[in-house]
Specification:
single chain, Rossmann fold, 5-stranded parallel β-sheet
């Protein structure tokens, strides 16, 4: 039997898929077509990009053949909601104000370390928006909508500059919201998350039941994905997995050669 390819997934709670959040990695692992893969979940709830950068050693130690990175939602949330910023200061070691340039620097550092220290094919996924009303005039939702678009541009730019695969999750998710808009995410209420945790672990509700009770179409709670939202990410990652590893590596090498030719021409 051929040795299975190791797929490492690095991110925050979207990647961790614990509790009421949709476990898209577990769903991919259960597909028969993915029997040739061994999935390693490096998702930690609440992580910002700088936290994920601090855990790259763990990913490298797994000796992955492919790496999927989806990180940045907590950077956005901590920018918009002061309460969450204070929480992350206590629980995640966040110092100062998160910013787009800081995120771009951290994401670039993650990709460069993975490229230098592994032979893996790397995919960067853009982010699903928080809230489901991209046209809302609510100040919090409007700020979230603007920042998620800005972070999409950053992730796409880093993927292009570092010659790795870009997974257009933001674009797919945004199109779904535009076709079927829902609730605005207007404030951060930690008690609501405790309530949903109680529903899941004590009352044994599943994520779809919690989403329905909360009035969300693509999320469980406005932040974490339900099955419908997570399926979009799962399909994009599946397309990355379906591409032969050799072809992905050859494409990266070809892009590197073209980049070097351009640099030589500039000299």
């Amino acid at each position: 039997m051929a040795e299975r390819e190791i797929v490492a997934c690095l991110g925050s709670s979207t990647t961790a898929g614990k509790g009421q959040a949709f476990d898209w990695i577990g769903e991919l692992a259960r597909r028969l077509q993915n029997a040739r893969f061994e999935f390693r979940n490096f998702g930690v709830g609440g992580d910002l990009a700088f936290n994920a950068l601090g855990r790259v050693d763990d990913v490298v130690a797994a000796r992955p053949d492919r790496v999927v990175v989806i990180i940045g939602s907590n950077d956005v949330l901590a920018t918009v909601f002061p309460l969450l910023r204070r929480v992350y200061g206590l629980t995640k070691g966040l110092r100062g104000w998160p910013s787009a340039p800081r995120f771009e620097a951290d994401l670039t550092a993650i990709v460069r370390r993975l490229k230098q220290e592994t032979g893996a094919a790397i995919a960067l996924a853009s982010l699903a928006e928080v809230g489901e009303a991209p046209g809302s005039s609510d100040p919090a939702q409007a700020a979230l909508t603007r920042l998620y678009a800005e972070y999409r541009d950053i992730i796409r730019r880093v993927a292009g500059a570092e010659r790795v695969v870009y997974l257009p999750f933001y674009e797919t998710f945004h199109a779904a919201l535009a076709a079927e808009p829902g609730r605005a995410f207007t404030h951060f209420n930690p008690l609501a998350f405790y309530r949903d945790t109680f529903r899941f672990f004590v009352q044994h509700w599943n994520g779809e039941q919690i989403a329905a009770a909360n009035g969300w179409k693509f999320h469980v709670d406005g932040i974490h994905l339900n099955r419908r939202g997570g399926a979009m990410l799962m399909d994009l990652v599946q397309a990355f997995l379906d591409r032969p590893l050799g072809a992905l590596r050859a494409a990266d090498e070809d892009a590197g050669d073209e980049h070097q030719k351009a640099a030589d021409h500039d000299l």
